[in-house]
Amino acid sequence: MPRTHRNRLALAVIAALATGAALPAFAQESPQAPAQPAEPAAKKPVELDQLVVTGTRVQGRSPTQSLSPVDVFSPAKLEKQSSADLTDQLAIVVPSFNTQRFPIADGTAFIRPASLRNLPPDETLVLINGKRRHRSALVNLQAEPFGTINQGAQAVDYGQIPSAAIAKVEVLRDGSSAQYGSDAIAGVVNIILNDNAKGVRIDGQYGSTYKGDGDKWRSSFNLGVPLMEDGFFNLTAEYFESDFTSRGIPRADAAVVEAARPGQVPFEGLGQRWGDPNAKGLRSFFNAELPLSENASLYGFGSYGDSKFDSSFFYRTPVGVAGVAPRGTLMVDANADGLPDAVDQALVNSIIGQGLNPADYLTASATSPSGWVALNPIYTQFPGGYTPTFAADIMDYEGVFGAKGKFDSGLRWDASLRQGENRVYYKLINSINPSLGVLSPTSFEPGILTQLERGANLDFTYPWQNDAFASPINVAFGGEWREETYKIGEGDPASFAVGPTAALFGFGSDGFQGDSPEGAGKFSQYSRAAYVDLEADVTQRWSAGVAGRFEDSSAFDSTFDWKLSSRFAATETLAFRATVNTGFRAPTPGQINTLDITTTANASGALIPQGTFPVNSPAAIALGAQPLTAEESFAYSAGVVYTPTENFSLTVDYYNIEIDDRIALRNFSITPGSPEEAALLAAGIPASAIPGQVSYFTNGVDTTVRGVDLVAIYKADFGNWGTGTFDARHSWNKQDVDHVDLIPGTTTPVLDAERVADLENQMPNNRSVLTFDWQSPWNFTVTTRANYYDSWEDSTFGETASFGSSWLFDLAVSFDLFDDHAHLTVGGNNIFDKYPDKQTNSVLNFLGAQYPLSSPYGFNGGEWYVKVGVDF
């Protein structure tokens, strides 16, 4: 639907809503109507009585009073889990928040993508203390079978945020670009940091999987000290370690090699490992506020993290094993003399002509007329084949500093500056640059990716007193300046070197090619924005809000986005709420300028190079690439809030989100003699530099996501047996691909049928989280949780596999010791050791994948943990 039509529809919807809300309200003020009693003071439903700051700039609203749906989660909900990763912790308690684990997926194996409402990770805005958090340097590039929903996204790394630093997490399930700017299409996750001004807490946690691998250790330290009378300084430091897991089966070719050469195949004969990576690192946060007077203060918060990861890539087969075709980086084909003698001789002449020794690049042969064959002499170092180890050292920091205060007139102000950076240092071990022959090193540093962001905000809030409404009009306005810079740092020379045999074996570090000086660079874009946000209680029963934001970006044309919100309390216990909004997401410098050469598998299981090129590169332009534009959304929601008692609350919200011009990766398979190869050759791309698959970013996909979120919370009083809190959450979600553009000048859609099928079916339509917390009178608590995952489908390599629904159960028992100064928790996640259905895809089975890589709850099985905490 064109945006002008959407605007008219939005005005009609909000007018109808406002009329329906206003008529009863105005009737009570009419002389002809009997006077109605004022609405009693709002009750405080259990677990929803915290005040929220996300989605509203009115102070003092609770989640049930807010105009948009907001969930609030305490650290206790997050920390009673086996995982030390906030990504997993949120996915287990928020049914509309999903993540997957992708091994053998380059940096995606380390920086976990997460989806809210079945939308890409970078369509959810992440805030820390209400300020925008910087993105990671990773652009998710992996194609199937590594998650279609996440492909192409560049988002925040939740894994850099320790739960010990968190006071609460607010999840706004509503589009809010008009309030916060780019990315807030699916919603907003606002992480509020710990502001405790007194005490020390030390925690230690250890756990493992039922299989005995994947050991996890986490220790954290939190310190709070006062600053002057009302200020505080809070510091959190957390160290974590996590060992790898392995849930694969031996690859078919690896099993043959292992039988012929026992003990030579990597990973104890498996060839490669499907599972979690090794990980260790430090994560730290501080949060501080220093009062200057009764009406002004300085504040600051920031973080520093340094994490190291390593995982495996695909297995490369060796030379000389009957029935197994050797990897092309070691031999051109299974027959050492398969190439014409003239080709062998021409290659030898070229090597000698450069003053090089042929023995460094080819293998001597008594039967070849040239005396040499196209066999890489480095093959002798890998009798069982080789599996590259891919590693990353991730450094992350952020600092936000500002001042805020209040004038006597009631005008509140907040001025802040921020800078954040995420830097990924890649390493590749146990690999080769095949074009360098026996002279190739076996370890590489392919490059450094950096995402640097700066920003400045000036925000004002004023309670405009008036006689027309039942409350002051909360007038919020301000401006923002943002700059994003994406840097590609070149790798070590051997990682991108084009050696003498590049035309036969390929070049660059095998598995993940290094960034050359030509591909390295620094790319920036900036944006400027101004917004106005109005919210008020129009009557005692009706609240309404309107927000508008103008943003001008150097990456695309300027945009104006708006949001209309309304809430009507029909009775003391029943209220209705609705919103209508537009949104946008700007293409990132990383998406515009990414250049990446890695390795993937094709439909036969063979390994092929995959190249992702910038949209303005000759290769991408030759294949029809166009400049990227911003994604645009139109969304509306409607819900009901029911709070019959102080102990029970129920909210049900329906939403519909339409997104035009979604950014996705367009993938081309390049085969000899194909029109795509001809176009690349005509553009001046050397044949040796053309990968087997080429990708670039493109707009051109329109989708609609609709769903229903339900949250029900009840607190029971068991008398002498303590109290219990029942928390039931359910999310129904369905995504439809409405339109797919064609590649200019062709009849080929920018997304193939498998990608479309995955967008629509790869995530479960239904997710439930049922939690019961029992607080006993005997200083211990019991937490039980059930997670339900509906069935899903995965379309990969020409096959569609279906996987059934599952229930996973968690249990934690916590003891308070020594007058509540010590705490012991014993627990488990997936305590009945549930696994997803087995993988049926023939190619993935050949590659050793036993379980679906798209599983929304992974495939590690059950895990147990023990946690000890001490307060001083």
TrEMBL record:
Alphabetical UniProt keywords: Cell outer membrane, Membrane, Receptor, Signal, TonB box
The organism's place on the tree of life at top rank: Bacteria
Stretches assigned to the TonB-dependent receptor plug domain: 66-188
Transmembrane parts of this sequence: none
Subcellular location: Cell outer membrane
TonB-dependent receptor-like beta-barrel domain ranges (all copies): 357-831
Main location per the UniProt record: membrane
InterPro entries: Beta-barrel_TonB (IPR000531), Beta-barrel_TonB_sf (IPR036942), Plug_dom (IPR012910), Plug_dom_sf (IPR037066)
Signal peptide range in chain numbering: 1-27
Coiled-coil blocks: none
SUPFAM superfamilies linked: Porins
Keyword Nucleus: no
Similarity field: Belongs to the TonB-dependent receptor family.
Name this polypeptide is given: Iron complex outermembrane receptor protein
Species this protein is from: Agrilutibacter niabensis
Lineage of source species: Bacteria, Pseudomonadati, Pseudomonadota, Gammaproteobacteria, Lysobacterales
